[in-house]
């Protein structure tokens, strides 16, 4: 069971992630790196939606595994896009190198915090 210290620590890490992404935009006067926030916020949604849509059966273990695999694929796509987008913007000389590094690190902190929140506060199913 997650306690108050876990909530405070995860909120602190989430705030640092948002701060890094916002600073990567504000310090370098280019707000294209804010797109990383959108990709990392959207990233867990396919896992959640496809996990709910799969509705695994008690008698068949493999029921709905294609839907779950598709959700994992989309989540992986969004996570890779969150890293690749700043690299692409840096390669095309749209953003500076420091902005790319701050954006990637901040985005990964945001995604890790969102995933940690879902892992720590998952409801246990009882049969």
From TrEMBL:
InterPro entries on file: Vps55/LEPROT
Pfam families recorded: Vps55 (PF04133)
One Gene Ontology term from the biological process aspect of the record: late endosome to vacuole transport via multivesicular body sorting pathway
Transmembrane segments: 7-25, 31-49, 70-89, 95-121
Membrane topology according to the record: Multi-pass membrane protein
Presence of the UniProt keyword Mitochondrion in the record: no
Protein keywords: Membrane, Transmembrane, Transmembrane helix
Predominant cellular place of this UniProt entry's protein: membrane
Gene Ontology cellular-component annotations: Vps55/Vps68 complex
Any coiled-coil regions, as ranges: none
Family annotation (PANTHER family): LEPTIN RECEPTOR-RELATED (PTHR12050), RH04491P (PTHR12050:SF0)
Family: Belongs to the OB-RGRP/VPS55 family.
Listed name of the protein: Vacuolar protein sorting 55
